[in-house]
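Dear colleague,

As promised, here are the two records you asked about, laid out in our usual form so they can be pasted straight into your sheet.

NAME FIELD: protein one
SEQUENCE, THEN STRUCTURE:
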Amino acid sequence: MDTMNIVCFGFGQVAKNFIKKINSENLKINLTVTSRKKSDKKNFNNLDYESFQFFEDSFDQKLIENLKSSDHVLVSIAPVNGEDIVIKSFKNIFDNSKIKWITYLSATSVYGNHNGNWVNENSKTNPTSTNGIDRLNAEKSWLNFAKKKNLPIQIFRLSGIYSNQNNILTRLKTGNAKIIDKKNQFFSRIHVEDIANILFKSLQNFKSKEIYNVSDDKPTSSEELILYGSKLLNIEKPNVVNLSTIENEMVKNFYKDSKKVNNKKMKEFFNYKLKYPTYVEGLDHILNNNI
């Protein structure tokens, strides 16, 4: 594979793990990322890269040159005021580009509440949260924009992300985990390393205008997850609290939705076997390697 010119709009845990995966395969890349911080030259995982400042209403003009020469673009920036700011700021730059791979990272919150039933990529999208509504609008913007400009786009709908650094075990150890009393409540999740691996797979196996659920094999309740985490750490389970007593709006919105996310399309198209097929393998690995 020739040297890849990659632009990451946003450089959070998914983008970093994706670049780390590419690096581990000894592929040559020129990396550009965006950040709210001042533009600078940086190093990540022994890779020198350029970081350009980007806000919803302004950006470092030097970013344009790098975007024009890019062939792979990963978009992980959340919508701002209900609008995708990458399209808003750079739609004219994409017009005459040589980009052959664009991935927009969305979220399974676009499905809304399905009362604990299974959802797949053809299921009704009826988001209940502001985040879900904005994500769905951004998806539609990207698909319409890509169709109009004949751009290659795929959308990954990510379930709840956990990692070696951010997971239920760390929340249990710091006392920040609570069991919410709500029956028939199912959530899906995915380890960040599996997301990176699937993104890497898609570099060679790409079909434009497609949407994929990125999730593990075992949707479960938060209570089941917390009980398993408590068992691993050999600590008492947290107290059970009633949802009506929760003041955090983000948490309350999170519990509005209950669904099981089907990942069959993702696994079959990318011919991918999950490294962490359930939270059991994921948390066991985290416990044995990090805590």
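NAME FIELD: protein two
SEQUENCE, THEN STRUCTURE:
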Amino acid sequence: MDLFAKCLQFYPLVDTAKKNGYYPYFIPLNSEPDRRVVIDGRELIMLGSNNYLGLTTHPKVKEAALDAIRKYGTGCTGSRFMNGTLDLHVRLEAELARFYRREDCLVFSTGYQTSLGVVSALVRKGDVVVADKLDHASIMDGCQMSFGTVKRFLHNDPASLEKTLSGIGRETGKLIVVDGVFSVEGDLAPLDHIMTSARRHRARVMVDDAHAVGVVGRHGRGTAEQFGVEDRIDLIMGTFSKSFATIGGYVVGDHKVITFIRHNARPMLFSAAIPPTAAATVLAALEIIRTEPERRARLWKIAHRMIDGLRSMGYDIGKTVTPIIPIHIGEQMKTLLFWRQLYDAGIFANAFVPPGVPPNRSCIRTSYMATHTDEDLDEALEIFERVGRKTGTIP
């Protein structure tokens, strides 16, 4: 078979969706990724962003990025390992380690590369990585890139994790990897139970807190802080593309472990460093996270209002307890058509269909920002009710 045959078979699916108006991907914004966005001259309420604290438009953050360009230029032109490390990167790693109260930190070019790099560096032949069945794709790709054995347990099921660990030899190297906040479902990993099983079976634990940093925990340090297990989690990783308002990723942990990852994580070794603008943006955002807790409080007020509002209308929003609120529809085509109805009514949200979610679990993922106004929420809830009834999604 011709190598490109699969491409020719796939193309009609996308082409048909575009021609019929239900293709929900790669839509270009004509404005800043703020609480409202402009697309093709229309203003929509942005309910599909991971900009949880609304910092992409914060004056201090933007000014920090401009100052970095003036001093360092636009890029680093090389990997951190060779010529791409700036004093700004070193300062950023020190500040992130201090924020998490850890010994060391390593910054990667993207969050995806962080998962890929850490898992593949640590898990070698003879080791086992144990992952939640709903872990992010970057974690699963890191598992595949490693030479270890991969085992998966039922989503957020401590009994399933315990059974999985019981089937692995006690002397075998084991790494449990879970999302802290699951990026589609919006629920939290039960880290207290996970840590109990991990210590019983001599397993190490890494938490991907991409959607939790700045949002979850009293000080915004994520799910480990929320569950009171910060001193027991071995590694915490995150991304800069959510609350930190730019691009990049990082992992924090003990100095000797981070040193090993720094010299063995191929996605970091063979990728160019994040640009100085990104490093400066994160430093500014981190300071705001530390000094403006009212942003986090506002975000949670919004999340609770939307959870209550959507659930009271009759929407199936699953077990979310965060500013990520999925609307479960199930069938793929119904989900795409519902997305289009929302879009036409003035809401930008995200359509998740297989393989991004399990079969028959297609949904609309909505997410909220601290900068959304009460007027934004009033309008959004009115649209959800109107579109839901029109499509028969709610009674």
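A couple of things worth noting about protein two: The chain has 14 helices and 13 strands. The CA atoms of residues 192 and 228 lie 8 Å apart.

Best,
R.
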